[in-house]
Amino acid sequence: MKKLFLYALVLILSEPVFGKTISIVGSPSLSFQFSEGQVNVEGEFELSNFGDEAAIEVFPEIEIGKWRWAGNPVKLMPQARNRWSLAAQVDLKDFACRKDTCVDNPLPQSGLFPILVWRHYKDLNGYPFSALTVERAIIGGVPEDRQNLLYSSPLKQIVKVKSNGEAFVAEVTIYNSGSTEIEGVLSLFTTREVLIETKPMAITLDPQSQKTFDLEGKNISGLLGSVYQVYSVLEYRDGEFRNASIGNAAWTIQEAETTNIWIFTILGFLIIGIIAVLYLRVF
Fold first, then answer.
1. For residues 76 and 124, what is the distance between their CA atoms, to the nearest angstrom?
2. From CA 221, how far away is CA 52, in angstroms rounded?
3. Angle made by CA atoms 213, 227, 195, in degrees to the nearest 5
4. Among the listed residues 40, 219, 53, the one whose alpha carbon sits nearest the alpha carbon of residue 124
5. CATH top-level class for 16-152?
6. Domain extents in the chain
7. Beta strands in the chain (DSSP E)
8. In this structure, which long-range contacts are made by residues 31-36, counting pairs with CB atoms below 8 Å and at least 24 apart in sequence?
9. What is the pLDDT along the chain (283 residues), one digit of tens a residue?
10. 173: closest CA among 163, 187, 159, 186?
11. Virtual CA dihedral for 252, 256, 260, 266, nearest 10 degrees?
């Protein structure tokens, strides 16, 4: 009886946990043709589910400035994929700034733009998830000999995320190795489940200098243990064109006080041990 009880206790403590997963991956392929203030946007966006559980309401989303495109939601079975096509004619000025940075943002309309690329889905319980990546593309009337120069930015970003649980501070350090002053707007982006509390800010960087900025956010509906990418985006004037510098880091949502978790875990094992000792003495 004693051996049977101890064996059962070991099974309870060491029983493995198996869970199904959803893994939605993919990225867009886009082209931008500019003519007389209008941009023809064409492309495809393919998403695949590499998990072992179906996902519902799966759709991609793209944001450039004030312009937004989203595909129709579909259900993706495990190891399945879906492809969306897009074609739109957009006024160049709609790309120029987002709805929250248009004020006091006198950047040129043509140049290198940040592109927010989203992947949205829900699990079979209807719980929403999203993932974000930030890419860049030349849009507008930029001569070919200037395009490579826009990609060769003198700016470098290092992002460190400091968190005490379900809130975080993104410490963004920007290095300007160039010979001219940089003026622009610094913004922070992450998944839909997280609220960015710091508004976009106008910044200035002297030549051959660096500055550090703290940008804050907090969890709204993300699950504990989830890992999200946090992106810092600096949009700035580069001669007669606009440019964009991007940095990123990962953030894991955790309990606010991990100490309490360890205390309860230790107490739980102590209680189990006491029960085991008492049981052995009685029987």
1. 11
2. 23
3. 55
4. 53
5. mainly beta
6. 16-152, 154-258
7. 24-25, 28-35, 38-49, 55-64, 67-70, 74-76, 81-91, 111-122, 128-139, 155-163, 167-176, 182-189, 194-196, 201-205, 209-219, 227-238, 241-252
8. 32/137, 32/138, 32/139, 34/92, 34/110, 34/139, 34/140, 34/141
9. 444 333 333 333 333 444 578 999 999 999 999 998 899 999 999 999 999 999 999 999 999 988 999 999 999 999 999 999 999 999 988 887 765 555 556 788 899 999 999 999 999 999 999 999 999 999 998 998 899 999 988 999 999 999 877 889 999 999 999 999 999 999 999 998 899 999 999 999 999 999 999 999 998 888 888 888 999 999 999 999 999 999 999 988 887 654 444 454 555 556 665 665 555 555 5
10. 159
11. -10
> β-strands 227-238, 55-64: how paired?
unpaired
Q: Which residues pair with 279 in a beta bridge?
A: none
Q: Is 154-258 in the same CATH topology as 16-152?
A: yes
Q: Which amino acid is at 103?
A: V
Alpha-carbon distance of 116 to 197, in angstroms, equals 18
Comparing C-alpha atoms, which of 203, 163, 168 is closest to residue 182? 203
Predicted TM-score (pTM) of the model is 0.80
- SS3 call for 14: helix
Instruction: State which fold the 154-258 domain adopts.
Output: Immunoglobulin-like (2.60.40)
First to last CA, the chain: 8
